[in-house]
Every structure is written in structure tokens, then in C-alpha cells.
Specification:
By secondary structure, this protein is mainly alpha-helical. It has 21 helices and 5 strands.
Length: about 500
């Protein structure tokens, strides 16, 4: 055997444990117990696993967490029992078995989902099954679920299960290098939108009030740039016919929002519909009529709210209402000219975000979202260019950060080398942020200093074993170069002092 010799049965327990420890198992005694349990007896499954485990143990040992991988494999085999397709796949598809060891030894996030959806292991035989599903197909499946279930709660449960399944598909494809970070962002946004559409259909089942309602994606969700563990930033809008009084309409709209949150809530794979980008933030109404938005923006709109609208995109609800909201948004987010005071205000807000929102004690050079040269720097620079020039440059009228970056270069607003440095930082920070969630099954925004955690993240990003320091050095170098571009182009540090937070 690669991990244990073919006469391993004649080894003493101590010798076998020593062999397992030598190839990287932290708990060789536990690993030996798993091996014994999986190979005991005369069943077809035990026979196949006896033949497979030598090479699979070697594959597990090459992963970041061999012990996790082996335990997850044992549980998966127990769950699937003697399923014909599973045993055939293990026996006949070396590629699928290798993929299985890679994802189980590399991602706690995937392990947690596979334990709930063991049949997903069948996808590992076919690379096409690990690609993001088309948005239309997802929406049609969700619509069929809604139509099939008479019970709202049963339908919502089925939609949540569908979401978990599709997020697992994206996680597997991402880990195995079959989809890019851009495809991942779009895929997660499509799954989120299909989930919200289904929940909205359920929330409105039997609703005969003459009320239009829509969900507007904001932030990275609106830009189709979600990562694993990302919140879904949203705003809610409604429009009532003249026969419905304002108070009744507002109450019904608030009830729809509450139902959306209830129906999408999932303790197994949380989906946080975050409405903090709405007018007045946490102090504002959770949902407004279109006319209320129109009146607010006409009288009270602040620069940061126009900036937030740059990534507003309708994703669920009445199409006519979405179109009218987006038309309203365009009048604010694509001004013909950005006043000098508005530009100064944007820079003051960014300086304040850097000084106040960074968690206490966090190293600014390691914060993936708010740190120097991180996601925030790239997005704020791009959004400033959009506010300044999208009124005259239609190609800048996009919710996508990278598409807007490309458009700025094409329009001669940004040097190609500067744009390349910003793109590299945005892509790397996005990949690292998702990899951190895949490794730990927890959401975090700070590049860890713990070497084992860094190693796990690096391996997910396809670094060679022992590359924790290489990942760290690469991230710090890439973001340092991006920050130099940001300071020069956003704050104009080669021309005048940086604005101070106030």
C-alpha cells in the first residue's frame, strides 16, 4: 500500500499508527479505527474499500486536513451504504475518487454540506455537473417547487434544500478549479435570486391586494460578486394602486419583508437578507413605496446613497416596478457631472470608514474587505470613476466592479497597468475570502496569522504544500501595490494631503 503496506494487516497497531503519522495524520489511532471499520467484513463495500484505501490514504495525506477527510469519507460511505452507483464510482473512476479525497480533506464547509447531501458525490464523475447551473433552469425548478407544494412551509423547506444543493455544487466546482471567481460570484447570485423569487411567490400566495412588490439587489449581490458566506444586500420597494390606502399598503409590504426573512432563514446554510443600504440606513423604514423613494431622493439624498445605487439591480418581483425603480436609480447614480463637494464628501466618508469601521486591533494590511489595497479600495475607486463619468460614458453603467474597471481603461480614464494592479488585488482578496469560508465553514474578513489556517487556505487556492508564507507574502505584496494606486488616484496623495475623517 502507499500508506500502509499490503501486508499491513500483519503490522502491529503501533507500527500502523506510526506509518499514518509519518504521512501526515494528526490522529493516527483514530485514522486506524476508521480504516478498520471501513474494511471489516466480507461485504462488497468492504472489499472495494480495502482495494481503494491504500491510494486514497495517500491522497488524503496530501490534503490540508487528512484526518477530517478520512472521517468524512467514512461517514459518507456509511450514509450511502451499498448504493450501486457509489460503489461503482469508487471502483471505476479514479478521477472521481481523487476529487472526493481532495474536497473532503480541504474544506469543512463542503464536509458539512456533503453530510446533508451525500448523493452529491455522484457529481464528481462528471465535470459538467460541477458547473454553475443556468439562472433560467434554477428559476424554473423553484417555480415548479412552488407549484407542486400546497403547504407554504413545505415549499420553503424544499427551496432551502435546493439552495444548499446548488451552493454545494459551486463549492465543489470552485475547489476543483472548474469555475473562476467571477463565475462563482454570478452563480451564487443566481442561486440567491432564485431562492428569493421562490420565497416571494410563497409570501404572496393568495394575496389579492393591488400591491406591486420588488426586491432590489445591492452591493456585491447587485454586482453578482458574492462569495461563500456573503450577506445578500437588498432593498425593498412597493407600489399600491390608488384604491389601497397608504397605511394598509405599508403594513402589507412590511409583512411581505417579514415573510421573506422567515421563509429564507436556514440554520444549516444561513442567508442574511441585509437591508442596511436603504435610505437612512438602520434608522430608515425597512420598505418604502416607489413614490417614497422618489421623494426621499429628491429632497434628502446623500452622496453615499447615490454611490450605493451604482450596484442596485432588481432581482425579484413585479417587472414593471423593477424597471421604474431602476429608472429612478439611474437619474441619481449616473449624474452628468459630480459636484466638487460631492467628490470631497466621498473621500471623507472613505477616510472615516478606514478609521472607524476597521475592527479594533485588526491589522489594516490583512483585512480583506476594509484593509489597505483590499476589496473596499478597488470598489471605491471604481465607483468614484462611475459617479464622475458614467453620465457621459455608457460603458461605465454597470453593476460589475471588474466590468466598470475595464470600461474605465477603454475610455482612457484609467491606465492599463493601474487597472491591472487593482484587478489583481480584487480577485485575490475575493478568492482568499471565499477560501477562508470553505476552509473553516465560518465567515471571516481578516487574513489569519495562524500557519495551519493559512496553509489550508493556500491549498484551496492551489498553492503547493507548505506554501502558507507564500500566500501571505503574495497577498501583502499585491494589496500594497493596489493601495499605492488607490492613494494616488483616489486621494491624490501626489498632489494634496489625504482628507481626514470627521
Amino acid at each position: 500500500m502507499a500508506a500502509l503496506p499490503e501486508d499491513g494487516a500483519r503490522l502491529s497497531s503501533d507500527q500502523a499508527e506510526a506509518r499514518l503519522a509519518a504521512i501526515g495524520f494528526a490522529d493516527p489511532r483514530g485514522a486506524l479505527a476508521h480504516i478498520a471499520a471501513m474494511t471489516a467484513g466480507v461485504s462488497r463495500r468492504a472489499s472495494i474499500q480495502r482495494a481503494l484505501l491504500p491510494i486514497m490514504l495517500q491522497w488524503f495525506s496530501e490534503g490540508a486536513d487528512p484526518d477530517q477527510g478520512l472521517l468524512a469519507f467514512r461517514r459518507l460511505s456509511d450514509d450511502l451504504g451499498d448504493a450501486h452507483w457509489y460503489l461503482r464510482m469508487l471502483r471505476d473512476s479514479t478521477a472521481a475518487a481523487a476529487r472526493l479525497t481532495r474536497v473532503l480533506a480541504g474544506s469543512r464547509y463542503v464536509v458539512n454540506l456533503v453530510e446533508r447531501i451525500p448523493e452529491a458525490a455522484a457529481w464528481l464523475e462528471d465535470g459538467d455537473e460541477l458547473r454553475p447551473r443556468a439562472a433560467k433552469g434554477l428559476q424554473e425548478e423553484v417555480a415548479a417547487v412552488v407549484a407542486r407544494h400546497g403547504s407554504i412551509d413545505a415549499a420553503a423547506s424544499a427551496i432551502r434544500a435546493l439552495r444548499r444543493r446548488e451552493v454545494l455544487r459551486l463549492a465543489l466546482g470552485g475547489i476543483l478549479g472548474l469555475i473562476t471567481i467571477e463565475e462563482l460570484g454570478r452563480g451564487l447570485a443566481d442561486v440567491t435570486s432564485a431562492t428569493i423569487r421562490g420565497a416571494l411567490a410563497l409570501a404572496r400566495r393568495g394575496d389579492e391586494l393591488p400591491l406591486e412588490f420588488a426586491v432590489i439587489a445591492m452591493g456585491r449581490y447587485g454586482g453578482e460578486e458574492l462569495g461563500f458566506g456573503s450577506d445578500a444586500d437588498v432593498m425593498y420597494v412597493y407600489r399600491a394602486s390608488g384604491e389601497l390606502d397608504a397605511q394598509t399598503a405599508q403594513r402589507r409590504a412590511e409583512r411581505i419583508v417579514a415573510d421573506l426573512n422567515r421563509l429564507t432563514e436556514d440554520v444549516r446554510l444561513p442567508l442574511d437578507l441585509d437591508a442596511e443600504l436603504r435610505p437612512e440606513g438602520r434608522n430608515g423604514s425597512i420598505v418604502r413605496s416607489l413614490e417614497s423613494y422618489r421623494g426621499y431622493y429628491a429632497r434628502w439624498s446623500q452622496t453615499w446613497e447615490a454611490q450605493a445605487l451604482l450596484r442596485a439591480s432588481g432581482v425579484a418581483g413585479d417587472a414593471g416596478l423593477i424597471e421604474d425603480f431602476e429608472r429612478l436609480a439611474e437619474s441619481l447614480r449616473y449624474p452628468q457631472e459630480l459636484p466638487a463637494e460631492a467628490e470631497r464628501e466621498i473621500k471623507r466618508i472613505k477616510a472615516r470608514v478606514e478609521s472607524e469601521r476597521l475592527p479594533r486591533g485588526a491589522d489594516p494590511s490583512r483585512h480583506l474587505k476594509l484593509g489597505r489595497g483590499s476589496l473596499s479600495d478597488v470598489e471605491w475607486l471604481v465607483q468614484l470613476l462611475q459617479l464622475q463619468h458614467a453620465g457621459a460614458v455608457p460603458a461605465l453603467r454597470t453593476t460589475s466592479t471588474l466590468d466598470a474597471l475595464d470600461a474605465a481603461v477603454e475610455a482612457g480614464l484609467l491606465d492599463g497597468e493601474d487597472a491591472a494592479r487593482m484587478r489583481a488585488a480584487w480577485l485575490l482578496a475575493s478568492r482568499v475570502r471565499s477560501a477562508m469560508t470553505l476552509w473553516t465553514a465560518k465567515t471571516a474578513d481578516v487574513l489569519p496569522t495562524d500557519r495551519r489556517a493559512l496553509e489550508g487556505i493556500a491549498r484551496l487556492l492551489e498553492f503547493a504544500p507548505g506554501s502558507a508564507s507564500d500566500l501571505e507574502e503574495l497577498y501583502l505584496a499585491v494589496t500594497r501595490r493596489a493601495r499605492a494606486v488607490f492613494d494616488r488616484l483616489f486621494y491624490g496623495l501626489d498632489e494634496q494631503p489625504r482628507p481626514t475623517a470627521r
